[in-house]
Every structure is written in C-alpha cells, then in structure tokens.
Design goal:
The structure is a single chain. The protein is of the alpha+beta class. It has two domains: about 35 residues; about 140 residues, no CATH class. It is built from three helices and nine strands, in the order αββαβββββαββ. A hairpin with a 2-residue loop joins strand 6 and strand 7.
C-alpha cells in the first residue's frame, strides 16, 4: 500500500516533530524555572489580598485630575477581563512593574503565559512586545487592549473614559491616568 519512500518520509517527519516538540518543552521548562524565581518580586493575582483590591473602580471621578490604579488592582482587572471571555479562566496573572515599563504575564486555562511588555513614552502607553513565554507573536494591538480596559472601567464604574485624552504614567506600584 505504501512504498518505502513514503514510509521513510513519514518516519523522518515524525522524528523531526518529536525533536522540535522536545526542544520546545525543554525551552519552556527552562523559562518557567527562571520565571518562578522572578515571580517572587512581582505583583501576582495568586498572592494578592482580594479584600483590598477592586475598589478603585468605585472611586473614578472625572472631576479629579488623576486616577491611580495599583498593580494589584490591575491583576484583579485582568482576572475579570479573562473571565469575560467565554470558556476562559485565569490560572495566574503577574505584573513586573518598573518606571515607564510594565511586563504583564497572563496564564490561562487555554494559553500558557502570554507576556505583554507595555512601555510609556510621552504620556502614552504602547505595547512593545507580545509573546507566549519566549516566542514573539504579532497578534494583539494596542487598540484591542485599550478597548478591553475602557470597557472594563465603563462596565464597573459607569464612567466612559474612552474619548477623554489621557496621559499615562507607568510607575513601580501603580498606573496614574491624568485627565
């Protein structure tokens, strides 16, 4: 039924697939080991006190000049946004916050550790990199992320900030939105 050339090609492709799968697994396990050590210095959903977060949305007032959202509130918000996607649950979310740059790690039941690097320049936040562990993917745009963020703020506080010009200041422990 199959000639020897077809069998040889099939075996070769199977071996290549096994090797690539094995190397990918080794690369992921190495990344995860390093990440687990680094995670201790991050703000993670798995280690925040849920009684102290989520209240920022009740305190948004357009009369104020600044709206501050802590890193803990941001991981809480990520959990709510992920839950709004049909069939998705959050395993964990972490933020490594630095001045002018945040790295956001999101681990869900359907996707292992999506990583978003957000950089602030001239009062605007831009997503500079998106990856799955260490593999870059160019699929998510700033607009998609902003829309999810604005929709979340509007649905939970009844304040629509979508059309208000905002300056963004990424700090080590919070985001400050200046109106």
């Amino acid at each position: 039924m199959f000639n020897s050339g077809t069998k040889t090609l099939g075996i070769f492709l199977l071996l290549v697939s096994i090797i690539i799968g094995g190397l990918s697994t080794i690369k992921y396990l190495s990344w995860k080991k390093t990440f687990t050590v680094d995670k201790e210095s991050m703000t993670c959903y798995s280690n925040i006190d849920l009684t102290t977060v989520g209240n920022f949305k009740n305190n948004i007032n357009l009369e104020e000049q600044n709206v501050e959202i802590s890193a803990a509130d941001c991981v809480f918000m990520i959990n709510d946004i992920v839950k709004s996607v049909n069939g998705m649950t959050l395993d964990d979310a972490c933020i490594k916050a630095e001045d002018n740059k945040w790295t956001v790690y999101v681990d869900t039941n359907t996707l292992p550790w999506a990583i978003f690097t957000i950089e602030e320049k001239d009062g605007k936040a831009k997503i500079s990199n998106v990856s799955i562990t260490e593999t870059a993917i160019p699929v998510i745009t700033d607009t998609e992320v902003y829309n999810k963020f604005f929709d979340y703020i509007k649905s939970s506080s009844n304040v629509d900030i979508r059309n208000i010009p905002l300056n963004v200041d990424l700090q080590q422990d919070k985001i400050v939105l200046s109106i």
